[in-house]
Amino acid sequence: xxxxxxxxxxxxxxxxxxxxxxxxxxxxxxxxxxxxxxxxxxxxxxxxxxxxxxxxxxxxxxxxxxxxxxxxxxxxxxxxxxxxxxxxxxxxxxxxxxxxxxxxxxxxxxxxxxxxxxxxxxxxxxxxxxxxxxxxxxxxxxxxxxxxxxxxxxxxxxxxxxxxxxxxxxxxxxxxxxxxxxxxxxxxxxxxxxxxxxxxxxxxxxxxxxxxxxxxxxxxxxxxxxxxxxxxxxxxxxxxxxxxxxxxxxxxxxxxxxxxxxxxxxxxxxxxxxxxxxxxxxxxxxxxxxxxxxxxxxxxxxxxxxxxxxxxxxxxxxxxxxxxxxxxxxxxxxxxxxxxxxxxxxxxxxxxxxxxxxxxxxxxxxxxxxxxxxxxxxxxxxxxxxxxxxxxxxxxxxxxxxxxxxxxxxxxxxxxxxxxxxxxxxxxxxxxxxxxxxxxxxxxxxxxxxxxxxxxxxxxxxxxxxxxxxxxxxxxxx
Length: 478
Fold this sequence. Notes:
By secondary structure, the chain is an alpha/beta fold. The chain has helices at 6-9, 20-23, 36-44, 53-57, 64-72, 76-84, 90-96, 100-104, 116-130, 153-164, 181-184, 194-205, 222-228, 257-268, 273-276, 296-308, 328-331, 343-346, 408-415, 444-447, 452-471; strands spanning 16-17, 31-32, 145-149, 168-173, 209-212, 231-234, 240-241, 254-256, 288-292, 312-317, 350-353, 355-363, 366-378, 381-384, 390-393, 396-399, 403-405, 439-441.
């Protein structure tokens, strides 16, 4: 490393955020990038640790120490090339990835990991600013064609890699815009959608053809794709939401988190209310909002509710409250279970753990509250705490309890591929082929609900597997 003592000389610093009172006024990104000199100092903290556990902590195996060193040496162009060698879309992961690489950083043993995520984001943002990111055209066309179903991070990564290998790639997206979860599941204040749009322009220049509003298995025959393409890739999401099984859950005031988030993203994109909310407007304005589910989607609902002017926001989690700090001797370099407070929580929300919902309380046909009870966990099972029932005021209840797997109606029913015991498409991570010859699967549709960075990894690996099957060999990286 260029600065072997950097980790001793410089304290960890990360990007700043606009103050909560300022950022909740709009849906813009609010991270304040670090300056060039400060980024150089932070990159210098990457120590010559011998075994860079950050490599294995990162699902796409980013070559982190090397591009940190290039940033330290002010060689940003080569840092960008190295970053792109493992990750098609670092501007996505640099904004929404939880950074398991930082958890695996050797300096995290003393709670001061290198600010890998911020440096990654700075590298790719500078690449766009300098005009270094251009279409990468293949040297030759193979004459083979591939249909990729789904334009989330897995589908986009797979399609881009296959196009660069010289195949004719068509991406089929059922929604009105490409991006999948990136487009409609992640709020704009975490990742502006211009990042997706400019990648789409790059990919179209590379030869990728996008067909939006085209749901395979409904408007388009799956059999027709099999007949007209040399390979088909199932790269949709795990969109089947986990339902709330309590009395009153069927009431209009109990809605899915993804519907709530999608509506707001559509409004931000300029859609009128009829297009944004075909089932009726979902708004947190002047309402007591309860978010059930303590994960990232729940946090996104908190941030969106705050921006819509909710009267109060409460987030509930059935699991017990995690510890403030993990036991490093037991967990490092693996991803630890510990208390995490998101930027949305900092903007204002009550959080409660070990809570089981019992029934939705209604008055005059509208919900007015949520009856809950406290629980204790013991050996993977829970029991209710006696005399601990309580009721929270609620005008809107948002369900952010995760997903059970991909939807079977339409596409998967028509495709006829085998599913595993979790309801996801059965395919291994070597060939990515399904039970149907010539049909492959990657991303959340194959692995279940997961991270954007895992989807990118699977899309890249699946592209190599398809290329190898079509051509007998592949030069695409895994």
